[in-house]
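**User:**
My hope is that you can spare some time for a protein that puzzles me. This is the protein in question:
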Amino acid sequence: MDTDLQPDAPAGTTGHGYGYSEDKEAYLRRLRRIEGQVRGIARMVEEDKYCIDILTQVAAINKALHAVSLGLVRDHMSHCVVGAAEQAQATGDRTVVQEKVQEAADAIGRLLR
């Protein structure tokens, strides 16, 4: 078994946290920026701004959220799925890989809805 695994960590994650951990501050900056954009849209609605201008801002937020989502999917694949594959190789239990791949597939499905 991988000695780097935390006892209470989900299978396929290492003692270093989740795949996004190294980029956590960058993700938080992006999310704070998105949060500010959402507050800006609320202000635009309160101030009765032109609907097309509001929709333009909504589109910008959607694009920013998609970028965060894709980054998290990439991090999950390169960290959690790879970690699960390493664990499966060490233990011979391939179900952990199947679970992580299914998690990724389910998450991608939710993003595409």
Summary: Helices lie at 24-46, 51-91, 95-112. Residues 51-91 form the longest helix (41 residues). The two ends are 37 Å apart (CA to CA).
